[in-house]
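Format notes (please read before filing issues)

Several people have asked whether sequences and structure tokens are stored in separate files. They are not. Every record keeps both together, in the order shown below: the sequence lines, then the token lines. Line labels are part of the format and must not be stripped during preprocessing.
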Amino acid sequence: MAVISRTEATLGADHTGLVLFDTLHGYLHPTDAKKRAFLKEHKILPNMKRLLAGARKAGLTTFYPMGQHAADGSDTVARLTDTDMDLNPGGARKGTIKPRFHKGSKTTEIATEVKPAKGDLLIPKQRWNSFFCTELELQLRARNIDTIVLAGGSTDVGIASTAFAARDLDLGLVIVRDCCYSMRGNNNDFFMDRVFPRMGQVVSVDEAVKLMAAGAKKAKKRR
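Then the structure lines:
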């Protein structure tokens, strides 16, 4: 596993992959005006585009875990919860929390601004954890990737679940703070400040791109 240091280590394509979690059209181009304003204020799409451009320039493969739930609800399980997904009281006592977007619709396509390129991989999923019942781990191991750069949303849902799984799989973990988001209070800051630093490294887009560029430069010298 790579040991990441902001001053010494690198994120080379030989051992690192970029994981963009649920960068779906429905999430990054929401119909809700407040959600659109939030994403614009925090520059989520521009930051993701810069991160992706840096990864491609450095030769990294990008993996796209993407929710692909059945429209008929056949892959959704009823759960007893205290709140709904937006933390409103009532939760599943008012009915099953259902996925907002369904396979086959425009909403579940990868947003155009961060669309896959040749060699990138789509990873369909039906749960928050990107590794659960998917081929993500297999595709990483097959490429000798032992470190992932993780970005997307929501921080307190899929990013957290995927990060915990990556740690338990002994993968190096770099989480890009300004490429992750949660619209539920201060949840993004809480995870970035209090949870993720014990599991890996939390960096900015600029830091991540710099580490990836250093990895590409290092690989070039070895040739």
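For reference, the curators noted about this record: The beta strands are 16-21, 62-67, 121-125, 147-153, 172-181, 201-203. The chain has two domains: 16-68+103-222, 71-102.
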